[in-house]
Amino acid sequence: MGSYKEEEKTDQQPKWLWVNGPIIVGAGPSGLAVSACLKENGVPSLILERSDCIASLWQQKTYDRLKLHLPKQFCQLPLFGFPENFPKYPSKKLFISYLEDYAKHFGIVPKFKQSVKVAEFDHVSGFWKVETQDFLYLSKWLIVATGENAEPVIPEIQGIDKFKGAVLHTSVYKSGTEFNNQRVLVIGCGNSGMEVSLDLCRHNAIPHMVVRNSVHILPREMLGISTFSIAMALLKWLPIRVVDKLLLLVANLTLGSTDKLGLRRPKTGPLELKNATGKTPVLDVGALSQIRNGKIQIMHGVKEITKIGAKFIDGKEGEYDSIILATGYKSNVPSWLKGTDFFTEQGMPKTPFPNGWKGENGLYTVGFTRRGLLGTANDAKKIARDISDQWRKYKGFCKNF
Ligand SMILES: Cc1cc2nc3c(=O)[nH]c(=O)nc-3n(C[C@H](O)[C@H](O)[C@H](O)COP(=O)(O)OP(=O)(O)OC[C@H]3O[C@@H](n4cnc5c(N)ncnc54)[C@H](O)[C@@H]3O)c2cc1C
Fold first, then answer.
1. Does 361 lie in the same domain as 392?
2. Of 62, 117, 201, 249, which has the fewest CB atoms closer than 10 Å, so is most exposed?
3. Using CA atoms, how far apart are residues 36 and 106, in angstroms rounded to an integer?
4. Residue 245 domain boundaries
């Protein structure tokens, strides 16, 4: 992978390393994909990863029962697909094994335990300065691959510090085994909230799921075909609003009215809402039938957490043993990338899709399209093409110098 030259460390300054090729921050699927595509184009790179493994989100922050939400053909990385014997929706374990094989296949060896604290373009030298706890790395190119899900979102909820039981985010939830016979309040009703509630049911816990806002729930498949594939195919021919109407028509026919279960649908359709706000529709894998038969209870908005439970905005109260925050994740880019206004305060590129992959002065982003791994694959190919053109000129210049 990327070679680098070390210089002596002084007491005041971190040791610096000159990187021969782009620096990629993050060794998740996006970092691996862009590194592989660069390699295919003859460009070395160096991945800096804060944890001690590749795909740390998948290896360390996801629950055991997780499977890819989308069918495998939409989740494979460029140049090296899933093995043919993988099921339609690979488990997290299979997905991780695929990513490990992917890294091995392309000889990708990230530098682990390198948490990027600050990265800034130096206009005088024309290099990106990327600082971790150990080193100052220098490169002509910086590729941000830290993901849309870098940090858990922990909301402030009145009284939560008084609660006597366990409070945990879904990023540390593994399985319902440890919640056997417990009454558990799950705050949040996205894909994670639904799947964790379902998992709790399967382990004889009693989940109450808090639904504060409206939510679109779609069947994962319609007539044996994945809803996502159907949506993708229809979008080639029809406007997004028409596709949304068709999806909702079939969803209502197959799932019935979710409003009646206390799960109000937003006024905007699922795909239009996803485009506008990034809010992903829930793909039902069984939680809805548990809501229907009362094994998952729906609660409306927490007013306050008490020592032993919660008070809700509709006046109801409940006692709970544990609270699980299924409140999602956020990007962490603004905390470390400085001196550029390319990103919003929420850490997403300001330039809308499909043009958010390239900034100024050799800055690139991969995996920030709100389009999952499909978006990652497209970004990675575009970035590799763009940098490889510059790389050839740069190498030619260095040779003549
Ligand atoms: C529960 C769950 C299920 C999902 N299912 C699907 C699915 O089925 N299909 C799909 O397409 N998408 C799915 N996604 C979205 C998923 O996040 C992405 O598809 C994929 O993991 C994104 O890869 P990434 O490399 O962009 O980000 P990540 O996987 O988050 O990787 C980013 C890496 O950057 C590292 N990093 C962060 N900050 C720093 C720093 N300052 N310095 C150094 N390293 C840093 C992190 O440790 C991490 O290893 C799911 C997400 C979740 C949470």
1. yes
2. 249
3. 6
4. 151-327
- The count of domains in the chain is 2
For ligand 1, the distance from its centroid to the CA atom of residue 148, given in whole angstroms, is 7
Q: Which pLDDT tens digit goes with each residue over 307-323?
A: 999 999 999 999 999 99
Residue 33 Cα to ligand 1 midpoint, Å, equals 12
Cis bond before residue 334 (omega within 30° of 0): no
Which residues in 127-214 belong to E strands, given as ranges? 127-131, 135-139, 142-144, 151-152, 166-169, 183-187, 206-210
Mean pLDDT throughout 372-396? 93
CATH of the domain at 303: 3.50.50.60
**Residues 143 and 25 both lie in one domain:** yes
Is a pLDDT exceeding 70 seen at residue 9?
no
Report residue 316 as tokens: 């109801």
- Which ligand 1 atom sits closest to the C-alpha of 170? 1
Q: Does the predicted model carry a pTM greater than 0.90?
A: yes
Residue of 380, 395, 390, 379 whose CA lies nearest to 106? 380
CA separation for the pair 357, 343 (Å, rounded): 11
Whether 3 maps to a domain, the answer reads no
**Ligand 1 center–CA 253 separation, angstroms:** 34
Q: Is residue 1 part of a domain?
A: no
Find the range with the poorest average confidence among 5-9, 143-147, 234-238, 295-299: 5-9
Q: Atom 41 of ligand 1 has which residue's CA nearest to it?
A: 116
Nearest residue (by CA) to ligand 1, atom 35, is 26
